[in-house]
Write a structure and sequence with these properties.
Elements: E1 2-10, E2 20-28, H1 34-44, E3 64-67, E4 70-73, E5 85-90, E6 97-99, E7 102-103, H2 106-114, H3 134-144, H4 151-154, H5 157-161, H6 168-178, H7 186-193, H8 207-211, H9 218-232
Parallel strand pairs: 1-5
Antiparallel strand pairs: 1-2, 3-4, 3-5, 6-7
């Protein structure tokens, strides 16, 4: 086992006027995850350390934090893949901190709801199911794998600068249904992102692609929405 120092940015609203840094020295196996370090600290050193976790297998996105300057999942970051010594841990940027590594993710979910993230089809339902060809499904395959961890939004300079910007996750969610061959609300859904703080606030910086734990090419998906917007000439797309 090797000695590691986890330098964690902490904030307790009941005690602290501003965030502070605290270091914890722990022994870890090279196969351990950063999340295992959090658990060891909470169980054996400081029970007040606060963080989110759930599945611990890269599915729920709960344990997203900033690790050595890059947003990611603590459960997917293996100790052997980070330099020995000090590991710097911070809460996700761009979100209000509730306590320690826990941030208020509700604004993020609210922006995703603006994208109308559900299938709309008022046609009479078929006897069994609404079929989709493998080719049609391939168009939305990557976008379906989004786990809404918030890493993309927390790494997006446009999201930092514009608090009303929908963000990459919400636009990806819009893409997922706009490109779904079974959906029948293209214009309505496009207009849901055709606003001053919507589609055109993406400046193709690619930070979202770099940090996505599911390796989704989010920027390319948004670019396809932009091309579709120009092609359709839908009202409202060039406001702001």
């Amino acid at each position: 086992m090797e000695q590691y120092i986890l330098k964690i940015k902490r904030f307790d609203p009941e005690k602290d006027r501003k965030p502070r840094w605290e270091k914890f020295r722990i022994e870890m196996e090279f196969t351990d995850r950063v999340l295992d370090g959090f658990i060891k600290i909470k169980d054996a050193i400081d029970g007040s350390l606060t963080f989110r976790r759930s599945c611990a297998h890269g599915i729920c996105g709960s344990c997203a934090v900033k690790i050595n300057g890059k947003s990611g999942l603590a459960c997917q970051t293996i100790i052997k893949d980070v330099p020995p010594g000090e590991i710097v841990i911070e809460p996700l940027p761009a979100f209000p901190v509730i306590k320690d590594l826990v941030v208020d993710i509700e604004p993020f979910f609210g922006k995703n709801r603006e994208a109308m993230p559900y299938l709309i089809n008022n046609e009479p339902p078929p006897e069994l199911e609404r079929l989709q060809s493998p080719e049609e499904q391939e168009k939305i395959l990557q976008s379906i794998t989004c786990i809404m961890c918030g890493c993309c939004a927390s790494s997006c300079p446009s999201y930092w600068a514009d608090k009303e910007y929908m963000g990459p996750s919400a636009l990806l969610k819009a893409y997922r249904f706009i490109m779904d061959s079974r959906d029948r609300a293209l214009e309505e859904r496009m207009n849901s992102i055709a606003k001053p703080h919507g589609l055109w606030r993406c400046h193709s910086i690619y930070n979202c692609v770099e940090v996505c734990p599911k390796e989704i090419d989010i920027t390319s998906h948004i670019a396809k929405l932009k091309r579709l917007a120009v092609k359709k000439k839908l009202s409202g797309f060039f406001k702001g």
